[in-house]
Amino acid sequence: MIRIVIALASVLTLCVIGGFFALGAFPPALVQEDVHKDVPFAAPPPPAALPPLGAPAPLPVAPLAPR
């Protein structure tokens, strides 16, 4: 029984210490390394040319039957 209690306490202790490291609760290292580098991005492609506007196509209309 005591072994289980010791195992659970050690796992919880490791989780707490890992949480402190993950949250940045400890001070940073003395030598900071550059993490972000400026990467030039490619220019966006020009917009596609719109087709020229012409006369709209006639709608297919069936003649009405006489009344």
Describe the protein.
With 67 residues, the chain is mainly alpha-helical. It has a domain at 1-25. The protein has one helix and no strands. The protein has one helix spanning 2-23. The relative contact order is 0.05. The model has no long low-confidence stretch (mean pLDDT 80).
Which terms would index this structure?
67 residues; mainly alpha
Topology of helices and strands:
Elements: H1 2-23
Number of helices: 1
Mean pLDDT: 80
Query: For the report, how would you describe the main beta sheet?
Result: none
Straight-line distance between termini: 99 Å
Order of H and E elements: H
Sum this structure up briefly.
The chain has 67 residues and is mainly alpha-helical. The chain has one helix at 2-23.
